[in-house]
Amino acid sequence: MRPFRLLQITDCHLGSQPGEKLLGLDTDQSLYDVLQLLQANEAPDMILATGDISNDGGVASYERFIHIIERYFPNTPLAWLPGNHDEPMNMDQVARLPIEAHCVRGGWNMIFLDSRIPMEEGGDLPPNELERLDKQLAAYPRLPAMVFLHHQPVPVGSAWLDGYVVRNHEDFFSVIDRHPNVKAICWGHVHQYHNSQRNGVELLATPSTCIQFLPHSDKFAVDTAMPGYRRFELHANGHFATQVSRVRQKVYKIDFASSGY
Q1: How many helices and strands in the chain, by DSSP H and E?
Q2: 253 assigned to some structural domain
Q3: Diameter of the chain by CA atoms?
Q4: What does the alpha-carbon distance between residue 111 and residue 131 come to, in Å, rounded to a whole number?
Q5: Residue whose C-alpha is closest to residue 145's, from 129, 130, 156, 134
Q6: Which of 70, 141, 158, 252 sits a CA distance of 20 to 30 A from 30?
Q7: CA angle, 71 as apex, 37 and 232 as ends, to 5°?
Q8: Is residue 257 part of a domain?
Q9: Are 50 and 148 within 8 A, CB to CB?
Q10: Does any domain span residue 261?
Q11: How many other CB atoms sit within 10 Å of the CB of residue 43?
Q12: Are 172 and 166 in contact (CB under 8 A)?
């Protein structure tokens, strides 16, 4: 059997109106560029957006996002989870609701967590989310599992970003450690590539579809790296391969001197 092809995009920061800019970058244009790259190189079985889909949390921004994805991939299932810039109540107001919370596809158990703290930048996983995680992992003990959330559960090596690590990450990992079928934990938020490992579980961050944060910088800094996405090839036997791809040969107007956003 061929592997299940999952594509992760994250931190699109779309506005309710076309032309929203983040540090000078038109976030519509950068998302178009990433999706064109996907369209040219991928045949996904599912697309997952791991938060900060919107920059303003407006219903119109989520409708716009779904319309843009469907323009490029009209027949591909779409899943999403909220980030700190998102408003979950507004996400649920869209006419065609993407997959939320959990799904089993391609012989894999995929769980989508809500790590958002209302009105805050950092992340946390409340008791009901940890309980849901535990139950959904226990319900499919023979299936390999992958867990997705917006905020990073481990430091990524940048002091200012690492202040936003999931507050109760120890409680989170205590649940993960009870389930040896978990193969990977994946997130967005940090606007950069990250790959590490904990107790045999891959820990992965994916670049944003818009601006990138400079890795290993103690203070806020914008990187010159291009927007991108992450591909997963999930084999039913529990093995998987993953790769990040980025837009190339593109010049964006970005405020690299900014001290924050």
Answers
A1: 6, 15
A2: no
A3: 50
A4: 12
A5: 134
A6: 158
A7: 45
A8: no
A9: yes
A10: no
A11: 11
A12: yes
Q: Is residue 195 within a helix (H) or strand (E), and if so which, with residue range?
A: strand 194-198
How does pLDDT run across 145-196, given as a tens digit for each residue? 999 999 999 999 999 999 999 999 999 999 999 999 999 999 999 999 999 9
DSSP state of 219: S
Interval 86-132: pLDDT, tens: 999 999 999 999 999 999 999 999 999 999 999 899 999 999 999 99
The Cα-based distances of 173 to 50, 108, 131, 143, 182 in angstroms read 19, 20, 13, 19, 11
Question: 84: closest CA among 188, 184, 185, 167?
Answer: 188
**R_g of the chain computed on alpha carbons:** 17
Kindly state the tokens that stand for 106. Answer: 């391609």
Q: How far apart are the first and last CA of the chain?
A: 45
Number of independent structural domains in the chain: 1
Q: What is the token pair recorded at 231?
A: 């591909």
Indicate which CATH number applies to the domain containing 222.
3.60.21.10
Residue 252 maps to a domain:
no
The answer to whether the pTM exceeds 0.85 is yes
- Residue 236 CB neighbour total at 10 angstroms: 14
H or E, element range at 243: strand 240-246
Domain housing 116: 4-246
Tokens of 219: 């203070």
